[in-house]
Design brief:
The chain is α/β, with parallel strands linked by helices and 614 residues long. The chain is built from 18 helices and 25 strands. The chain binds 2-deoxy-2-amino glucitol-6-phosphate.
């Protein structure tokens, strides 16, 4: 949700900020803007639409050269995506400019107060309330940092605020509550941003900011305090990927690049997490064995694609550990008064580590005494910081809004976690764990085999490009794969796509099948005969209604051949691991179909990569 960058240093701030916004655009892209301080004055430019519109504006009417700048790329919450509502928001006296990510829940009350005092608002946003309030505090105390603290003290909700003051051309002040903010530490220059992608081409040294903290950067200093002014020390770390990882490297879309990165990404997730004998070593998950043995319930919390990864994980974790495992949408969790306590282990899954729904669910679980393990891709993000332990997926930056390598690396991490719990609790023998570890180790090469057949999937996407409705069905772990396949198509192709549990179809949804409706069926491997045969029966049910049946089944499964309009063969693996392979053709299909339809695959309409509002 919204990307933010601030820069102070010797370079041309407008260029640094615009380059940073390009890397952050995946976070929100309905409007953007930039503000610079020069000779005691603030200059700004902002535009509705994608960042290219702002770049055109700046090319036509360049801003003066400056060494202090802030920028923003927006995903609208309060106020539509117009030029006026775009950030930065200047106070009426043009003394301060502010960019903001999050939602200020008490903005209406503060706005009313300011209007009563004669402030005239230019936009419909909650952000302008923050900039007007900040200017008012600044007039009262004369110091932007104090003014920022005072302003934060008045705001309710979630916010990252980054501000500049016309009077101090070498300083940026930023604050955060429930919304991401990271500092980039350079030599003779410093940065603040929503995530490290914004400044990765300039520095890989970063500092995490804690909850309710304010940071002041100048070209040579970084000072962190809490909202009461007490000095704090942020954790400094080195980002383990570089600017090249965040480039498209010859692919037309980040999403396509990320699809093809999956074998490498999964291999990285697995790397160093077991010894030569297949004994798992998750040393980073520093929760004591006794505590893990005492657990009587596991609750998986996540949103969107990560939730579907959690649905797969439940089958594996329950099967291997014999501990009851629930999986719940993070956005629903705390509203049902869930039964969790000190013997509950919560596993949260989040690519970004900033999803507000998931974060709030964690806080609720921890308040009830539960222990929380985060599975996350973003080092230093809020969710891992607020969890008891973290297992990083190490997928590298995921820029495409539709998650792909996020999903398969989350699956790999969930399998590791499940096997590790089984090892600690003694519900699987060492050789059984080692066999599964061997299978996991073989997955990257098998994933590559599926990806190597991309051309046939692309042809299918071209063939089916005129269809408006798609169904996806599966049972057991194939069911979440069906849901995820449908989500990919909805997100980027804007088509009606639904995923169903194959056995549920006959209880109603089968009525929507008309002749030639494409139905993707995820057929489980033949090992578990009941499961496999039931899905084959489901294929016949849809086939009998005239559907065009697109079957994903393991190579050599002859039983599906008579009923498949198209057969997509997958390498043979255990049932529990099949989702890592079965999802790949569905990702490639959605990516290609959206491309054929002329959509912006990386930045689909109405969406944002990281959803930092509830
Ligand atoms: C996936 O394609 C989506 N863009 C979305 O569902 C995403 O998975 C969800 O918002 C959760 O994000 P997270 O993994 O960063 O928490």
């Amino acid at each position: 949700m919204c990307g933010i960058i601030g820069y102070v240093g010797p370079m041309d701030a407008a260029r640094v900020v615009m380059d940073g916004l390009r890397r952050l655009e995946y976070r929100g892209y309905d409007s953007s803007g930039i503000a610079l301080g020069v000779d005691g004055r603030l200059y700004f430019a902002k535009r509705a639409g994608k960042l290219a519109k702002l770049a055109e504006l700046l090319a036509d009417s360049p801003l003066p050269v400056s060494h202090q700048g802030i920028g923003h790329t927006r995903w609208a919450t309060h106020g539509g995506p117009t030029d006026t509502n775009a950030h930065p928001h200047l106070s009426s006296d043009e003394q301060v400019a502010v960019v903001h990510n999050g939602i200020i829940e008490n903005f209406a009350e503060l706005r009313e107060q300011l209007e009563t005092d004669g402030v005239v608002f230019a936009s419909q946003t909650d952000t302008e309330v923050a900039s007007q309030w900040l200017a008012r505090e600044l007039r009262a105390c004369g110091d932007l940092v104090q003014a920022m603290r005072a302003t934060c003290g008045r705001l309710k909700g979630a916010f990252t605020l980054v501000a500049i003051d016309a009077a101090h051309p070498d300083t940026i002040v930023a604050a955060r509550r429930n919304s991401p903010l990271v500092v980039g530490v350079g030599e003779g220059e410093n940065f603040v941003a929503s995530d490290v992608a914004a400044f990765i081409e300039h520095t890989r040294e970063a500092i995490e900011l804690g909850q309710d903290q304010v940071v002041v950067i100048t070209p040579s200093t970084v000072v962190i305090t809490d909202f009461d002014g007490n000095v704090k020390k942020g954790r400094q770390y080195r980002v383990d990927w570089d600017a090249k990882s965040a480039e498209k490297t010859g692919y037309d879309w980040f999403m396509r690049k990320e699809i093809f990165e999956q074998p490498r990404a999964v291999a990285d997730t697995l790397l160093g997490r077991f010894d030569a004998a297949g004994h798992l070593m998750l040393d980073e998950v520093n929760i004591g064995d006794d505590e893990l043995r005492a657990i009587d319930k596991i609750v998986i919390l996540a949103a969107g694609t990560a939730f579907y990864a959690g649905m797969v994980a439940r089958y594996a974790i329950e099967h291997w550990t014999r501990v009851p495992c629930e999986v719940e949408l993070a956005s629903e969790f705390r509203y049902r008064d869930p039964i969790v306590g000190p013997r509950t282990l919560c596993v949260t899954i989040s690519q970004s580590g900033e999803t507000a729904d998931t974060l709030m669910a964690i806080r609720h679980a921890r308040a009830q005494g539960a222990r929380v393990i985060a599975i996350c891709n973003t080092v230093g993000a809020t969710i891992p910081r607020e969890s008891d332990a973290v297992l990083y997926t190490r997928a590298g930056p995921e820029i495409g809004v539709a998650s792909t390598k996020g999903f398969t690396t989350q699956l790999a991490a969930c399998y590791l976690l499940g096997l590790w719990l089984a090892q600690v609790r003694g519900t699987k023998f060492g050789d059984e764990v080692a066999d599964m570890v061997d299978e996991l180790n073989a997955m990257p090469a098998l994933m590559q085999q599926v990806l190597d057949r991309a051309e046939s999937i692309y042809r299918l996407a071209h063939d089916l490009a005129a269809n408006k409705d798609f169904l996806f069905i599966g049972r057991h772990v194939g069911y979440p794969v069906a849901l995820e396949g449908a989500l990919k198509l909805k997100e980027i192709a804007y088509l009606h796509a639904e995923g169903f549990a194959a056995g549920e179809l006959k209880h109603g949804p089968i009525a929507i099948i008309s002749p030639a409706t494409p139905v993707f069926v995820i057929v489980p491997p033949r090992g578990r005969d009941q499961l496999h045969d039931k899905v084959v029966s489901n294929i016949q049910e849809v086939r009998a209604r005239g559907a065009r049946v697109l079957v994903l089944a393991e190579a050599g499964d002859e039983s599906v051949v008579p009923f498949a309009s198209t057969l997509i063969q997958l390498p043979s693996v255990s049932t529990l691991l099949q989702p890592m392979l079965a999802i790949l053709p569905l990702q490639m299909f959605a990516c290609e179909l959206a491309t054929v339809l002329g959509h912006d695959v990386d930045q689909p309409r109405n969406l944002a990569k990281s959803v930092t509002v509830e």
